[in-house]
Design a protein that fits this description.
The chain is of the alpha/beta class and about 450 residues long. Helices cover about 30% and strands about 25% of the residues. Strand 7, helix 3 and strand 8 form a beta-alpha-beta unit.
Length: about 450
C-alpha cells in the first residue's frame, strides 16, 4: 500500500518539489530544509532568501507529493491483536511494538494512542488472556521503539468489577497525556443497540450457532443488569482521577443518546468517540465535547454495527477528529475521501493531526510550522509525514539527487480517490521566516 521513505535516522536533509499542507492553505512547488533535526527554512522553491543545503546534505525530489503534519491517532486497537495474533501464539512484546510502529509510520501516523483493555472479556463476551493488560502496561510505560510516539488509551469496562481496581493500580506508571475511555458494551444500548446485528457478528466472528448467539446475548444483558454498583464505583473513581491528575483526558465511548453524553460530561470527559446516533453527537457538540469518528467507517461507507455513519456526522458538522480505530491503514485514505467529497486539503488533514493533538493535550505537534511553540530549537516528538495523492494509482517515494539510486515506483491497489502515504520524516522545528502565499491551485483528487 505504501512505499518506504528512503531516509533512516538522518538529522539533516532537504526536500524540494512538494506541496506543503499548512493551516488553511497549501504552498505548492515548495522546498524545505532540515538541519540537526529542526526545520531551518521552508518556502517557495527558488524563492529569494532561502538558504542552500550543503553539498553533504541529501536532497530529495518530492515529485509533487504532499508534505503534511504527521497524523495523531487517538484510538489504535492494533497492538493488543498483534501481541496475540492467534490463541496461544504470543509474540515478543518489544518486537511487536517495533513492527507496529513501523506499520503506523508507513501510513503517516507519528503519534499513536494504543488501547489497553482493563477488562476480563472482550466487548462481545469472549475470554481475554489475563496477561495482556499487564504486558501492555509494562511495554507502554517505557516504550523502547522510537519510530513513532507511543501513547496510551485505557479502555475501562465499567461493568467489570476488576476493571477499575486494575486501572487505578496501573495509572501511576503510565505517562501523560493519557486517555481513559469509559465503556459499557451491554447489548441493547451503545454500540450494540441492534441485537440482530450483534447476533450476526457473534455467528461470524465467534462461530456460534444462532441459538448459541442468542444465549450469549442474554448472558451479557444479565451481566449488565447486575452491574449498577460496579458502574457507579468505576465512574466515581475515574471522575476523581480526572480532577486530580494533570494530563488525564476522559473519553465517552459509543454513546447512543444525550443522556449518556451528559453523564460523561459531568464526570469530566472531554472527548466523545464513536457516537452511535446523530442525537448523541449533537448533544456532544452542544456541551463543547470533541467528537471522534472512525476512519474505517468513513472508508467503508458505514458502520459495521449498523450505527450512524461517519459520513453523515461529517456532513452535519458533527465530527472533529478522525481515528484509525482497528485499521491504521485507513486514516490517510479517510483524509483523501473527505477531499474527494469536497473538503479542502488543509481542513481534512487537520482532522487527523492538529485536532486530535489538541484534544489530547499535545500542543507540540500536528499543526502549522509557523505556529510551532517554543521557537527555534530541537523539534521534539512531533513529526511530519510525506503523502502522495493516488491520482494515477502510483505510490512514489522521493528521489535522491546524488549517488543514491531512486526507488522504483510501487503499484498500489487503490481507487483514485484514496490517499496513500509514502512515509514519514522528522518533526517540524523552528518556524520559517519566509512569506507564505495562499495556493491558487484547485485541490482535488
Amino acid at each position: 500500500m505504501s512505499a518506504a521513505f528512503p531516509l533512516h535516522g538522518a538529522r539533516s536533509w532537504a526536500i524540494q518539489d512538494v506541496t506543503l499542507v499548512l493551516a488553511g492553505q497549501l504552498l505548492p512547488d515548495a522546498a524545505l530544509l532540515v538541519a540537526d533535526g529542526r526545520i531551518q527554512w521552508f518556502g517557495a522553491r527558488g524563492g529569494r532568501g532561502g538558504p542552500r543545503p550543503s553539498r553533504a546534505t541529501p536532497v530529495l525530489d518530492g515529485a509533487g507529493l504532499f508534505l503534511a503534519p504527521g497524523l495523531v491517532d487517538l484510538h489504535d486497537d492494533g497492538l493488543e491483536r498483534a501481541l496475540l495474533p492467534r490463541a496461544g501464539a504470543g509474540l515478543p512484546p518489544e518486537q511487536v511494538l517495533r513492527g507496529h510502529g513501523a506499520v503506523s509510520r508507513a501510513h503517516g501516523i507519528t503519534t499513536s494512542f494504543h488501547a489497553i483493555g482493563f477488562r476480563r472479556r472482550s466487548a462481545i463476551g469472549s475470554p481475554r488472556p489475563a496477561h495482556l493488560t499487564p504486558t501492555l502496561t509494562g511495554l507502554l510505560a517505557h516504550p523502547t521503539d522510537g519510530r513513532i510516539d507511543h501513547r496510551v488509551l485505557c479502555r475501562l469496562d465499567i461493568t467489570d468489577p476488576q476493571g477499575w481496581p486494575q486501572l487505578r493500580q496501573a495509572l501511576p506508571g503510565l505517562p501523560a497525556p493519557l486517555l481513559v475511555s469509559l465503556e459499557d458494551h451491554t447489548p441493547g444500548q451503545g454500540q450494540y443497540r441492534d441485537l440482530a446485528a450483534l447476533a450476526k457478528r457473534l455467528q461470524q466472528d465467534e462461530g456460534l450457532s444462532p441459538p448459541a448467539a442468542q444465549h450469549r446475548i442474554r448472558q451479557l444483558r444479565e451481566h449488565g443488569a447486575r452491574a449498577d454498583e460496579t458502574r457507579r464505583l468505576a465512574e466515581r473513581g475515574v471522575a476523581d482521577a480526572l480532577r486530580s491528575r494533570p494530563g488525564l483526558v476522559g473519553v465517552c465511548h459509543d454513546p447512543d443518546g444525550p443522556e449518556q453524553v451528559e453523564r460523561a460530561a459531568r464526570l469530566g470527559a472531554r472527548i466523545v468517540e464513536f457516537p452511535t446516533t446523530v442525537a448523541a453527537a449533537r448533544r456532544s457538540r452542544e456541551l463543547g465535547l470533541r467528537i471522534a469518528v472512525g476512519a474505517p467507517n468513513l472508508v467503508r461507507g458505514g458502520s459495521h454495527c449498523g450505527n450512524v455513519s461517519a459520513a453523515e456526522l461529517m456532513s452535519a458538522g458533527l465530527a472533529d477528529i478522525l481515528v484509525a480505530d482497528y485499521a491504521p491503514a485507513t486514516l490517510w485514505p479517510a483524509v483523501g475521501a473527505l477531499v474527494a467529497r469536497g473538503m479542502a486539503w488543509p481542513e481534512a488533514v487537520r482532522l487527523a493531526s492538529a485536532e486530535p493533538a489538541r484534544a489530547a493535550g499535545l500542543d507540540d505537534r500536528g499543526g502549522d510550522p509557523r505556529r510551532c511553540p517554543g521557537g527555534p530549537g530541537p523539534a521534539g516528538p512531533g513529526r511530519l509525514a510525506l503523502a502522495a495523492a493516488g491520482v494515477d494509482g502510483q505510490c512514489r517515494s522521493p528521489r535522491y539527487h546524488g549517488r543514491r539510486p531512486a526507488p522504483v515506483a510501487q503499484r498500489i491497489e487503490q481507487q483514485p480517490s484514496n490517499l496513500s502515504v509514502a512515509g514519514s520524516i522528522p518533526a517540524w522545528g523552528a518556524p520559517s521566516q519566509s512569506p507564505i502565499r495562499p495556493s491558487q491551485r484547485r485541490v482535488g483528487l
